[in-house]
Design goal:
The protein is about 0% helix and about 45% strand. It has about 400 residues and is an all-beta fold.
Length: about 400
């Protein structure tokens, strides 16, 4: 049984969103994201309502990245002549308000190897981000308003062994195998920087050894991490046995969201499923479920905007957390969106727009952009919240620069 949830007060972080009654709650209209044929995934959203993602063609060709805005779809460049590799596919992950986009590229020689890539604008050619010490793979997952990006560097296919930051044309290591226990050996991803805010504060997850040693290796667990000025800090849980943690996003006020999972020592099969969580000043608190009880197994908070609005999913339902209250996104849809049902909220911008995944009125799986109607001025922040946020406004910045 999960521990009793603590009411999550955004006011504790100076982000008091005021929701006085049902009449004050946002309502959303739905814009379906149309895509070329193939397996379609939307991954990132900026404050202009631009969405990036990729399509895996049905004919087995390499993935192609796209940008969606205002009902239009734009293909991003996806071929990169390179001194060593010739990239023929790309998957966009995120973009900032200047239109700089980051993601990963795939090579024709080694389709399971990835390289971190960027586009300086939606119309620009694709470019490669720097590698470290001869590593020839990686992926970029987030980019802030100053063009600083974060992600991972792969030592071999399927292994993300270094969390990286790309800044001023250089790749900087945030976390690597050398950082952790020298006895540590795990098969699979071991470090990933997931998000970065405009103050270059970074969050992500690394694999660390458990207490028990089994056979020829240590079993590992996910540990949420925070990086600032080159220093790493573990985002610990003060709840008994809730030591598997994952940090997914951070806003400009330092509010971090993600998930935690319970594990009982001595039983490698005893993990209970993820629960949505947030960290304020390094202290973890659980987020309530939609019905006010413990969130269902597999639930997670995935993003937070600069107004303190948190999104994620709970038991197969897209969720918006406002002022500590979990709201089913499906209950907030405008009447024009009748029949739509959303299972995951992926991203949220500072205008309150939400990138979601779910089923359209015709029963087809799709991604969509939800926009508050009318504009959410009456439901965003109280006067106190506006004052608290005044110093954290995002600034328009140049696109990602690489040497």
């Amino acid at each position: 049984m999960a521990p009793k949830r603590t009411l999550f007060l955004l006011a504790a972080a100076g982000l008091a969103a005021h929701v006085a009654s049902a009449a004050d709650l946002p309502r959303f209209r739905v814009e379906a994201l149309q895509a070329p044929s193939g397996a379609f995934t939307a991954t990132g959203l900026n404050d202009l309502g631009q969405v990036v993602g990729h399509v895996q063609p049905a004919d087995g060709e390499f993935a192609r990245s796209y940008l969606w805005q205002g009902g239009r779809v734009q293909a991003l460049a996806n071929r990169l002549p390179h001194s060593e590799l010739h990239r023929v596919g790309a998957r966009a992950s995120a973009l900032n308000n200047s239109g700089a986009i980051v993601g990963s590229g795939f090579t024709d020689q080694h389709s399971d190897m990835q390289g971190a890539v960027h586009w300086s604008s939606p119309s620009a050619a694709i470019g490669s981000l720097p590698h470290l010490r001869g590593r020839d793979g990686g992926s970029a997952t987030a980019i802030n308003e100053h063009g600083t990006a974060v992600g991972s560097n792969h030592a071999s296919p399927g292994r993300a062994d270094e969390a990286l930051m790309w800044k001023d044309g250089k790749a900087l290591t945030l976390w690597s195998h050398a950082t952790g226990d020298p006895r540590f050996y795990v098969e699979g991803p071991s470090a990933m920087a997931r998000d970065i805010n405009d103050h270059d504060q970074v969050v992500g997850t690394v694999e660390v050894p458990m207490a028990e040693y089994h056979g020829s290796r240590w079993f590992s667990r996910g540990q949420a991490m925070y990086w600032e000025n080159g220093q790493a800090r573990q985002l610990l849980s003060d709840r008994a046995d809730w030591h598997f943690t994952d940090a997914a996003a951070i806003n400009n006020a330092g509010l971090i969201v993600g998930a935690a999972e319970k594990w009982t020592a001595g039983d490698i099969q005893s993990a209970s499923g993820w629960q949505p969580a947030a960290w304020i000043d390094g202290k973890m608190t659980f987020l309530d479920s939609i019905d006010g009880s413990d969130a269902d197994s597999g639930s997670q908070a995935t993003d937070v905007n600069n107004q303190g609005w948190i999104v994620g999913h709970d038991g197969g339902r897209a969720v918006l957390w406002l002022d500590g209250k979990a709201l089913a996104v499906n209950s907030l849809l405008d009447p024009s969106a009748a029949g739509w049902r959303f299972s995951q909220a992926i991203d949220i911008n500072d205008k309150g727009q939400i990138l979601v995944q779910g089923i359209d009125a015709g029963g087809q799986a799709t991604f969509a952009l939800l926009t508050p109607v009318p504009e959410p001025a009456s439901v965003l922040l109280s006067a106190g919240g506006l004052l608290a946020m005044a110093g954290w406004r995002r600034r328009r910045a140049p696109a990602l620069a690489t040497a």
